[in-house]
Every structure is written in C-alpha cells, then in structure tokens.
Design brief:
Blueprint lengths: L9 H38 L11 E7 L2 E6 L5 E7 L2 E6 H61 L1
Antiparallel strand pairs: 1-2, 3-4
Helix pairs in contact: 1-2
Length: 155
C-alpha cells in the first residue's frame, strides 16, 4: 500500500523521518560490522602468505594480547588452526585455509551487496520526506504571513 507523502501531516512526516533515520542507522551499522568482519578475513588470508618453506625456523613475535608479544619460532609452515566460530578451531593446511577465508570474504561481500540497495532506498525515501516537510513548512510560513497581512490591513 503506497502512501502519498503530501497527504501526511507535518507530525506524521517527522515520525516517518525518525523511523527512516533509525533504519538508515541500522543498515549503515550492519554494513560497517560486515566490513570489519570481512577485513579480518582478508588480513587472515593475507597473513597465510608468510607460511612458506623459506620461513620455517625463523623467529617471530607471537601475540599474547593486542599489545603484548613473546618471541617464537615458526616450526610448522604447512598447517594452521582456523577459528571457525563459537570458540571452535580446526587444523587446516595453508591452501584449505586460504579457500576457507576466500569463501567467508565472498559471503560477506554478497551480504554487503544485498544490504546496499536497501540503504540507498531508505536514503532516497528520507530525502523525499525531508523535501515534502520543507515544502509544507514553507506553505505554513506563507499562510501565516498572509494571515498576518490580512490582520494588519483590518487594523
């Protein structure tokens, strides 16, 4: 059921704009969260490139926290433990891990592409509501000015 925006009152338009603001904020936040997750998978996939036979036995820093590291030695360049979600880790070889991360990246890309049109549509709807609100405000101001002029000519 389509509603003509010009048929709505100013308070109704303000309510609709508020709802659209919330929806735009939610969709924007969702896309941001998906992009953060996507970037983590891209970084994980890219970091697998250091796992090659030339680097076996090399020293490296192993993170204990985001700001604390301990020295370590790279012993196994063929296998990694991959976090597959909810605290489960699976041992995979490097190529399988790259494939896993590529699937995750592709999935998140598709999800972002699904949300993007909805976000653009909500933005367009919000702009249309704002334009109608501005038009109604102008009409209200003009009618107030006209009634003041009529009131001044009677006095």
């Amino acid at each position: 059921m389509a509603v003509n925006l010009t048929d709505l009152s100013l308070p109704q338009l303000e309510g609709l704009k508020g709802q659209l603001d919330q929806e735009v904020e939610f969709l924007t936040s969702s896309i941001s969260q998906l992009k953060v997750a996507q970037n983590k998978f891209v970084e994980a996939k890219d970091s697998l490139n250091v796992l090659n036979p030339d680097n076996k036995g090399k020293e490296l820093l192993v993170p204990l926290t985001s700001s604390m590291y301990v020295p370590g030695t790279l012993n196994d360049v063929e296998h990694v433990l991959v976090d597959v979600g909810t605290g489960y880790y699976v041992e995979k070889n490097v190529e399988d891990s790259k494939t896993f991360f590529k699937r995750k990246i592709d999935f998140l890309t598709k999800q972002i592409e699904k949300i993007q049109p909805a976000l653009q549509e909500k933005h367009a709807m919000k702009q249309a509501v704002i334009e109608v609100m501005n038009l109604k405000i102008q009409q209200l101001q003009q009618s107030q000015q006209a009634s003041q002029m009529v009131g001044n000519t009677k006095a």
